[in-house]
Design brief:
This protein is mostly helical. About 65% of the residues lie in helices and about 0% in strands. Helix 3 packs parallel to helix 6 (about 125-150) and helix 5 (about 100-120) runs antiparallel to helix 6 (about 125-150).
Length: about 160
Amino acid sequence: MSKSVLFPAVLLFLACGANSLHGQQSLSPALTDTTAQSVSKSTPKLDLRSGEHRFWDRENDLLFTGVAASRTFDYFSTLNMRRRGRQEIFLTNDAVDNHAGFALIEAGATGVSIGAAYLFHRYNHHKLERWTSILHIGVASGGAVRNYCLKTAHPAGAAQP
């Protein structure tokens, strides 16, 4: 497995295992058994003043959809760039020319972005949680636009099939 495929796979693996990094909260010994049962059955109240929210709320749904859309845009722009004879900068040309493998790399990058946002959410860094997706959308879309703006590298005298 090449380094360009291995790195996103390792990041995705680490992001998926992040839930087990946070230990269980223990109840205070002062709570009685009946109080402990009622606490465990009640739904937790969110403190909206601190910016706390559910992870899969509407804003995150839209941001994650934007990340997936921008990665899809980057996928097609990179394939277009390669068809026009340009060289890939960040990955090897072999990785990009393997369309299924390249699609998995793009999907893995989307998963890593969602995993990073989850880690920020889990540890109450809610602004960073949102900004992770916003920056990812901007960088991926900017790269895709750049790919479309590059001039074709085919020689002028070459015959087109």
